[in-house]
Each structure stands twice: as structure tokens, then as C-alpha cells.
Amino acid sequence: GTRVLLYEAGEALRFDEFSIRAGIKGVINVLRHLKMMPKSRGKKRELNYFIANNSGWLRASESGFVTHHFKLGDHVRAGQVLAEIGGPYGDVLDQVVAKKDGVIIGKQNIPLVQEGEAMYHIAYFQEDDEEIAGHIENVEDELVNNGTNGKALL
Length: 154
What we know:
By secondary structure, the protein is an alpha+beta fold. It has helices at 17-33, 129-145, and strands at residues 54-59, 64-68, 75-76, 81-86, 92-97, 102-107, 112-113, 118-124.
């Protein structure tokens, strides 16, 4: 059979520039590692890696309209209100609260939620949370602001 590299990211029916840049950079790095592309002539930047030792989903306790307060990649602390679930007349039925410190790695974006539906996927780490949040900001800066330095990727 033929070996295939498949990258999936972002959401259905949407283009997400951050995910696209991360995917392109990742595929190019794999091709360079396999010697299918020449090595980068640019200065190699050292990256620190963090491994999540656990993750979990926060689920809706009520059905209703969702008002999100956080986005993908955000660092959250235990007890923070991530979203509110409201009724049809604007009343707040319940709040979705972070159970532990972590980073949002998955999130539903549909404005309506049914009781029991998964709303936030949170990664949990053993390392210092502030160090992890800083690492995420560095990766975002590298991919969004300096990802191509204005040059074509291929």
C-alpha cells in the first residue's frame, strides 16, 4: 500500500489560519525529516514540548443558548466560568466551570447546546501552568506572526 500523511485540524466547513499554518509547517518538517525536502536554511529555534498527562470534557448540565468566554488554546484556572447556558428569554440557567487548571484543546462552537453534550475539552499538565501558557503563546506567535516570514512555504 501507499503511505499517506493525513492532517486534520480546525472545524468542519471553516478555514482556521492558525491550524492551516501549523499543518503546513508540520508537513514540511516531516518531509524534511524524511529527506524529501532540503533542510531549512533558516535559524533553528529551540522549542520546549509539554505533554498533557490527562484530559477531559466538560459537558452541558442544561439545554439552552451558549455564551462562551474562552477560546481554543486559552489557559483556564479551576473555578473559572468558561461559558453560560441561557434560556430563551436571556436568563442564565447554568454556568460551565473549569474543574482544574488546564488548556482548552477542543470546544464546540454551536450556539445551542443539549444537556449532556460535550462543550470543552481540557488538557491537564503536571508542569507549571504559567510556563505552559507562555509556551502556547510562543507557538501562536511563531505560526501566526512569523510562520513564513513573508516567504512562500514551498
